[in-house]
Amino acid sequence: MSSSPIAPDQALHRLRQDGFKVEIRDQHLLVHGVPFVTAQRVVRFGTLVCLYLQEGDQITPPNGSGDNHQMWWTEEYPCYPDGTVLDLGSDTATRELLPGLTIRNRFSSKPDLYHVTGYPNHYEKVVYYVRMIQNPAKAIDADVDARNGVITETQSAESVFRYPDTASARASILALSAKLAVQRIVIVGLGGTGAYVLDQVAKTPAGEIHLFDGDIFKSHNAFRSPGAASLAEINAREPKTDYYKRKFDPMRRGIISHPVFLSEHNIQDLSGFDFVFVCVDKDEARALIAKYLVEQGIPFVDTGMNLELIAATNSLIGTARATLVSPTRPETASECLPMGKEDDDVLYRQSIQVADMNAMNAALAVIKWKQLLGFYSDTFRSYELSFAVNFGTISRKPCAQDPDD
């Protein structure tokens, strides 16, 4: 995730012209240096924060951004000169809103003029909140003012995304999503499950996504992968890894194609990565990859799916499985993964695949990855998730004994 220079916007231009110290960071507008009165009747300074969503080349006004009349505040709750608290619709909740930015309160207030329609632009919204918070401070010290004439334009490392992640901004989970940004990950196998893993991981700020698969993209792949391939793309007989890199390139950077199968001759190409999704259809390949990753201490999720046609009912039954193997639980690989042994969970036993089950398998795998990084809570610390389509249930199990248990 990155910050960008202040974008062209009339409301923002007015704030700058008025002398407000404004900053645009991760789809949020920050107004620094706003004076307020503490409960001890002392003047301090804080930062107001609200959504500032850029949809394409347009800035979404507050009344269409999802937060409408809300503002976050980085300091303790502001007061009147006598120390009694202001009425700004307080919602006290200390948390990291953006990477490196902690908020302590959220306000929800608007004047009667905008009671129904909401603030028409960011200028009106900022000015209203600043006036409410600053006026009591000016009663104590007439010289303090949020209009201090200092303009901040933040520019940090370039985002992997080619356009802003407004979804995470709207949900106020940018700081949480940053947990995924440090990752250099690998997806081995771009069949149905691997393709859907890519579809989900590409929408995270993971720094690099490396794709390994030596096969070409064919018509049967088109029917169990995200999106829609054209006839020309199928006829092009393009390597799968090149095809998917090209498909996701309009959205993000950092996808690297490796149009090769992994073998004992190049398995070392997996060295140095943070996480691997193993989505292969041969137990021999799974065993080779799992052994190497365990030796290198690289965490990974192995995916598996077994669908079976029941002749009596002319319907499918089966499961989709995602098993996490981490450096603290390496025995999970030998105890849980089907690697050449007779097991009902052998991947693609009948080579039956359906797009929705591939997508489910990928979702289970990505959820385990995100749980490992703390994006999702993992109350039961399960190391395997499986979905049984005929029962409509998701089960969990810790394959190996947790050393803390």
From TrEMBL:
Q: Which residues form the signal peptide?
A: none
Q: From what organism does this protein derive?
A: Oleiagrimonas soli
The THIF-type NAD/FAD binding fold domain covers which part of the protein?
178-305
Q: Which UniProt keywords apply?
A: Nucleotidyltransferase, Transferase
For this protein, the record's Pfam families field holds: DUF6791, ThiF
Q: Where is the DUF6791 domain?
A: 11-166
Protease: present as a keyword of the record?
A: no
Q: Which InterPro entries match?
A: DUF6791 (IPR046741), ThiF_NAD_FAD-bd (IPR000594), Ubiquitin-activating_enz (IPR035985)
Q: Name one GO molecular function term.
A: nucleotidyltransferase activity
Q: Supply the name of the protein.
A: Molybdopterin/thiamine biosynthesis adenylyltransferase
Q: Nucleotidyltransferase as a keyword? A: yes
